[in-house]
Sequence to fold (889 residues):
Amino acid sequence: ENLKATSTINFTNTFAGRLPGLVVVTRSGEPGNDNSTMRIRGLNTLGDNSPLIVIDGIANRSMQRLNPGDIESITVLKDASAAIYGAQAANGVILITTKRGTQGKPQINVTANQGWAMPTVIPKMCDAGTYATLLNEIDMYAGKTPRYTQEQIDKYASGTDPWAYPNTNWFDETFKSAAAQRAGNMSVSGGTENMKYFVSLGGNYQDAIYRNSATKYSQITFRSNIDGRISKNIDLSFDVSGRQENRNYPTRSAGSIFAMLMRGYPTSVAYWPTGENGPDIEYGNNPVVVTTNQTGYDKTKKYVFESLLKLNITIPWIQGLSFTGNAAVDKSIENNKLWEKPWYLYSWDGVTYDANDQPVLLKGKKGFSTPQLTQKFSDGRLMTLNALLNYERAFNNVHDFRFLAGTERISGESMGFEAFRKYFASTAIDELFAGGDSEKNNTGSASISARLNYFGRVNYAFKQKYLAEFVWRYDGSYIFPQEKRFGFFPGVSVGWRISEENFWKNNLALFNYFKLRGSWGQTGNDRINTYQYLSSYGYNSSTNGVYTFNNSVESKILSELRIPNPNVTWEVANQSNIGFDAEMLNGKLNFSAEYFYNLRTNILTYRNASVPASTGLTLPRENIGKVVNQGFEFTFGYNNTWGGLTYDISINSGYQKNRIKFWDETPGIPDYQKSTGHPMNSSLYYQAIGVFKDQAAVDAYPHWDGARPGDIIFEDVNDDKKIDGLDRKMNYKTDMPTFTGGMNINLGYRNFYTSIFLQWAAGAVVNRYYEMQGEAGNFLLSDVTGRWTESNQVTNKPRTWNRYGEYWRDNRNNTYWLSSTDYLRLKNFEIGYSFSESIKNIGISDLRIYFSGINLLTLDKLTDFDPESTSATAYPLNKVFNIGLNVIF
Fold:
């Protein structure tokens, strides 16, 4: 219920901090591209770490665009229990069950939300006066005459002459105050004893933060299901769902747009005072223009259709035995058009005026000389067939047996093509036929996939006190060669409800419930590149790679690209888990804790060897890698009433840390540069330990050639009195947090209610390095405030830098640019009022109005970026204010 209450457009954005062990990071807030990265218990392998999504029993369906109003329940499988879901469940499973009809009269449920989104944080850049001062410093350090006089700097700072001395805040010029978003949903459900139904229709819309924005996202969803009892022993159900997604973007990506905003010269105009577009930063890029449709568009329409037919037969002559069969067909179609056309910007030389003493602007054509169109189409289908035999029987309320055996076949196919034409005579017709015949191009692709699985599960409970479960999978995947295609993966779990023992009841009665549990299991993982056991070939499209026959017919050369690995096989997840669950105070207080140890073996990685570059070949990956991931999780909950006030508090948190146990590390490197024994994705960094105060400080410590006062000091790690590549140390923090959690507080008084959700993450870092600064672009104000100067020599911030030239900037990773992304966030706040009692006499069962906010407050050490973002040029996360209405008839 807490997940569904969050008023977000993208359902994955609701999970952060809600469930222990589920690490959720949202990297972007761009409409249509705001999916959260989800990792169950962090990182477990060098390859794909995504969990398996199972919706209504069907694997590999998408949850990002689910309508929250359609969801009945969510379960996360993190331990050996996930093994029953097989080859793609090694990273855990998220199970989602959607709503179905219930017996009773029709019930209509309507929800509507209107929201306003704005960035959680906007970088503060230097104004024109400060930027001009910094450019003078760059000139001074380069031995040049400063380019600006103090009088000119003062004019830039004042901004009183927007023609000659503008002072432009590019974020203010490009952004509006808030972007609208809205969502709505209506569902109807009901039924009789023999026939039940559920139907829903939903839609949402998101605008972007840009003025005159070309970025928009919209979606329409539908879902329906019907459950029918054909006879006493036969039940049949049929589900149909689908959605249409519309993504509209400018021709420039969000990353490139935010790079422009970071670079934007404050000494240049966005618009001239007369309203014309200002000049570009480079290559025709002006943020206030390229965020609109003036440069063309990038539009995608996606259609998804999902169906499920389910048959359940109770075998009457064997008590407890039943058969279930499922057949699902999922279809997706995607059509993309990238229409790029010229646009126009205006520049002024600073000296030319017309007869009325007004500046004369020069109109310039930017982008491509003529329009061009790239069109892509893809079509995919996934079919799932499974059959399950289930037996459940209890004997004398003592022995409880459950048995499940099944088989499943999953097959998929997809195709796509792409076509390109340029030299369109006009922007009036944006279809391929209207393009020119020269320099046109087209390509296509197709793929198939297949998996065949056999699985089973046996459960036994003695007086519901001693519990045991055994699961097994025999999975086959098209990914592997025939002789290694199938793998067997078992798992076992046990539980002891110790609170049912007499000695516990007599001595520890304050515990209403206490259960110990443990599990171990293996799961195969086939989430690797396909057909690695085969040689890979590609066409050589260069002139030297084409043979000509009879002076006219050209034939491309096929070249081998990859050496095959005929021994490629299953990666294996070995998962161990131990924990307990407890309740006290008649269920008012509950808590749980568990420890896990996951060992991933047979990970595909490269040997530390190479072949001559002249061959054009790469060696294959081999199943030699090992990774360990371990940690703990806990939950705590308390609920009670006090007078007319009801309240409940729940807290969860988890810690996970991985380390590479083995891969083929480069021999001979120092221990402090090895990644073995340390987290995946660790990187080598020079250790920044301060700033050279003066020339004496430079002379007194080993330094990079050309170092001067105001430069960053690199630590001489190996104490060899020089700074080189051997002074880089492995940094063992990555962009993935190791400690995550959340706290939810629900309060209710009469018809009022409020919900407060706090979320936190710690243990990650972000590299704030951004290249395009100095003469190439503007500076962050926080980077240069307190910088080293001749008059401010005692500081931890370096002198002003240019785009290139400083050893601590020229693509040399160093810890000066690393920042902690630890944060505490007010993730969600909602307050509302329910009219349920006062309106029942007019035919309304419940009426609720509410106000909610998302990402309202963040406490962290970063000043210019959201702590969940890993890039200085990513579309920022959104802070959302929302009002909503829910009516049930």
